[in-house]
Amino acid sequence: MKLDPLLFFYAAPLVAIWTGYAVRRRRLEMQSLATHRESLEAGLSEPASLHPAFDSARCIGCRACVNACPEGNILGIIGGKAALIEPANCIGHGACEAACPCGAISLVLGTAKRGVDIPHVAPDFQTNVPGIYVAGELGGMGLIRNAIEQGRQAMVEIAKRGGMGGGGLDVVVVGAGPAGISASLAAIERKLRYVTLEQETLGGTVSHFPRGKVVMTAPATLPIVGRTRFKEVGKEKLLAFWQKITRDTGLRINEQERVQQVIPEAGGFRVVTTRAQYRTRAVLLAIGRRGTPRKLGVPGEEQSKVVYRLIDAAQYRGQRVLVVGGGDSALEAAASLAEEPGTTVTLSYRSKAFSRAKPKNRARVDAAVADGRLRLMLGSEVAAVGTDRVRLTIDGRPVEIGNDAVVVCAGGILPTDFLKGIGIEIETKYGTA
Fold first, then answer.
1. Facing residues of 54 across strands?
2. Integer angstrom CA distances of residue 36 from 17, 50, 87
3. pLDDT surpassing 90 at residue 34
């Protein structure tokens, strides 16, 4: 059999192109595998929030999820299948799930080893206590756009219950974050009698994020307002957008009013707050998972110079600041403060390594330490806070440093006791690892 020489003439370039593509693909896979091993060695194999789980039987290794991820190098291909490469960097945007053409990705909380406690919630967003509903981050929905949708859907279900009667409310919305705002707008849309209570200010957990942080990466649809136009938005722009919504729609939010008790009564509940009491047919909890800030429990902590979040690093310019904590919020705060001219920054963490912080935040801290802009005190604990000094212990040895301000980033205490006091059952969710 004689082969046409022209066949080789045309086929050779195609073979070369395909070979080059295969080599590049293999190189990317090996790089992903190396990064994955580094993450495992660094103790970063347990995602801390909502994250993708992969069905290997459905995954075809097309890299659509890898290309869609807005955070970069979080996903990769290992053995021809999609996998989490840097789990600690994943913040649950969910772009990978939407991009997968095979339905091989689902968003889950927790892993096979690390469970997450959340309230027991039915498909209609109702807890085991009839009349009490949960929406948003508290129920495990970390994405802002999905929390917004949950708030809307939960209010649709609440509207089906009918009115309280006798001058009571149809619903009390607890929390004015993404889910609470959406639910409140849905209550207005359905002409329900409602009150929205927020223990702090409009925005809920979002208002605690550092200045300039990107908090939303996809459009969302709000009741009355419609679909948002922006695709990527920072904290300040989103808060300003919500403030405009309250003005345009007449949405009322009782800020600085904390709920203390939810007491069952005939036909509904009595909600007791720091200011008043409300009779209501239903209660929607959209309070997030932040809870109350975790304190150090040391003498002098009650001083006004001790705060539990960093909003604007510029306000500490020229001061001596101690940041306490080893998570991403602590490292972000320390690195941001170190960029301010004349600011002396010390980062104290009780462990010897930042095992849960994102690599990019650790890199920022390392760079600040190398430049002499940040002092790192690993293996240290705060013993007492004075007026112009802070006393710490390192390996049992006392150390004192000059100090004008303390920023504690030690996480929050989840509202588990509050939920259990109402009678809501808590379950531990384990995702697939």
1. 105
2. 29, 19, 9
3. no
- The pLDDT-based confidence of 6 (bands split at 50, 70, 90) is low
| Tens digits of residue pLDDT in 240-278 | 888 999 999 999 999 999 999 999 998 899 999 999 999
Q: What CA–CA distance (Å, rounded) separates 299 from 88?
A: 34
The residue written with tokens 């309230």 in the block is 119
Q: How many residues does the chain have?
A: 433
What tokens were used for 340?
Answer: 């301010």
- Maximum CA pair distance of the chain? 96
Q: Indicate the residue type of 349.
A: Y
pLDDT band (50, 70, 90) for residue 36: very low
Give 3-state DSSP helix, strand, coil % of the chain, rounded to 5: 30, 25, 40
Mean pLDDT of the chain: 82
Counting beta carbons within 10 angstroms of the beta carbon of residue 216, is it exposed (0 to 12), middle (13 to 18) or buried (19 or more)? buried
Cα–Cα distance measured from residue 250 to residue 204, given in angstroms and rounded to the nearest whole number: 19
DSSP 294-305: PP---TTTTSTT
On whether the CB atoms of residues 90 and 52 are closer than 8 A, the answer is yes
SS3 at position 51: strand
pLDDT digits (tens, 9 = 90+) for 175-192: 998 899 999 999 999 999
Cα separation, 82 vs 62, whole angstroms: 8
Task: Identify the CA nearest to 63 among candidates 75, 49, 72.
Answer: 75
Rounded Cα distance, 316 and 312, in Å: 8
What's the confidence (pLDDT) of residue 433? 42
Q: What Cα–Cα distance (Å) separates residue 100 from each residue in 53, 60, 90, 399?
A: 12, 10, 17, 53
| Distance (Å, whole) CA 346 – CA 320 | 8
